[in-house]
Write a structure and sequence with these properties.
By secondary structure, the protein is α+β, with helices and mostly antiparallel strands. It folds into 2 domains: 186 residues, Gcn5-related N-acetyltransferase (GNAT) (Aminopeptidase); 168 residues, Aminopeptidase. It contains 11 helices and 15 strands. Strand 3 and strand 4 form a beta hairpin. Helix 2 runs antiparallel to helix 8. The longest helix has 41 residues. The termini are far apart.
Length: 372
């Protein structure tokens, strides 16, 4: 039979998802839903499937984003492509279709970051490099998933009790402390509760100095994952008030923590430990093999917190770029890895100042005017 490539649309999203989980390097960001979520950021998803008869041999979710006022675009294939490690013919035909799409969209380059461990790829026999990709040395990027991640092996314990006993003693103490202080963890049930969490999370990111997407992004996580039973927003409730939370998405047997945050004034309540443990327990209950709270190498405080749950530090193979327009690619590369890191703190300070002004204006607007 002939190997063929075809595009998948909304009517076959279940078929796409069922096919994705057959690959050993599948990830929650390979799900059909992820392309729909990323549309809010201006990315247009295309779903390429390589099929021979009834057998799916390869898959690739490609996100395409136009660069304003230029007529150009860039491409990103999160955690892709998916194909058998020794199936070079599938990789070639997938990339052939991507190159055709790139010509139509005037694309500068394609970036990928496969969900493959670094030690599983030989630098001398790297099939991606043979196809023209440049393997980047960078350990992180401002707009892609982290290269080094923390994952908890949920199969290391047969029961929930054994899993709880396997985490750090101090983490167990903090989970119990949160309960004793009256913190309860429950799943969000409505979009209004999601919006309340977003208010908390967006302010939390200002204080921590990292970016926060708009509310619509979290609403799409709700619509595409949580409402379909493939995710959950864990809310921390104290004295009847929502004071923080954590969003997780689930796909196949994998659980990925996305966004979490609690205002610093509640730090003594140890809410982080409480809702993180509850999400790990839930993932175990759902039959997941691993749980990931993403990046390694954040702040010392975050590192200490994550390590208390006894995760494995997994070094992935990292970022690959396939340039289609070499000169423009060099310009983009310089802006991303040389210019942006130098101005990032300034951008975050400006964002923080804007956020404070907006909050102040909101309080003034809500202050009642007294009539004498």
């Amino acid at each position: 039979m002939t190997l063929q490539i075809r595009k998948i649309d909304e009517g076959e999203r279940d078929f796409w998802d069922q096919s994705v989980v057959q690959f050993c390097h599948a990830h929650p960001l390979n799900a059909y839903a992820w392309g729909r979520v990323r549309e809010i950021d201006g990315w247009q998803p295309s779903y390429f499937l390589a099929q021979e008869g009834h057998t799916v041999r390869g898959m690739m979710l490609v996100l395409i984003k136009k660069i304003p006022w230029t007529g150009l675009s860039i491409m990103y294939a999160p955690k892709g492509p998916l194909y058998g490690s020794d199936d070079s013919s599938v990789l070639k035909i997938l990339l052939h279709c991507v190159r055709q799409e790139a010509r139509k969209k005037r694309t500068i380059f394609l970036r990928i970051d496969p969900n493959v461990r670094d030690d599983l790829v030989s630098q001398n026999e790297d099939p991606l490099v043979k196809e023209g990709f440049v393997h980047l040395e960078h350990r992180w990027s401002f707009w892609n998933s982290p290269r080094d991640v923390y994952r908890i092996d949920l199969g290391r314990a047969a029961t929930e009790e054994e899993l709880f006993a396997s985490i750090d003693r101090d983490a167990r103490r903090c989970v119990r402390k949160a309960r004793k202080e009256g913190v309860s963890i429950r799943p969000a049930e409505t979009l209004d509760e999601l919006r309340r969490f977003y208010e908390i999370f967006s302010q939390f990111t200002v204080g921590k100095g990292f970016m926060c997407r708009q509310l619509r992004y979290q609403e799409l996580l709700w619509q595409e994952y949580i409402a379909k039973g493939n995710g959950r927003l864990f809310l921390a409730v104290y004295q009847g008030e929502v004071i923080g939370g954590l969003i997780c998405i689930l796909f196949g047997d994998m659980c990925l923590a996305m966004h979490m945050g609690t205002p610093s004034r509640y730090n003594k309540l140890h809410t982080y430990y409480a809702y993180l443990w509850e999400s790990i327990r839930w993932a175990k209950e759902r039959g997941c093999s691993w749980y990931s709270f993403r990046g390694v190498g954040t702040t010392p405080t975050q590192e200490s917190f994550k390590r208390k749950f006894k995760p494995q530090a997994v070094a992935l193979v990292g970022y690959y770029d396939l340039p289609f327009r070499p000169l423009l690619y060099r310009v983009f590369y310089g802006l991303e890895f040389e210019v942006l890191p130098r101005i990032w703190r300034t951008l975050m300070r400006l964002r923080g100042g804007y956020s404070r002004l907006a909050a102040s204006a909101k309080r003034i607007k809500l202050t009642p005017v007294r009539a004498d």
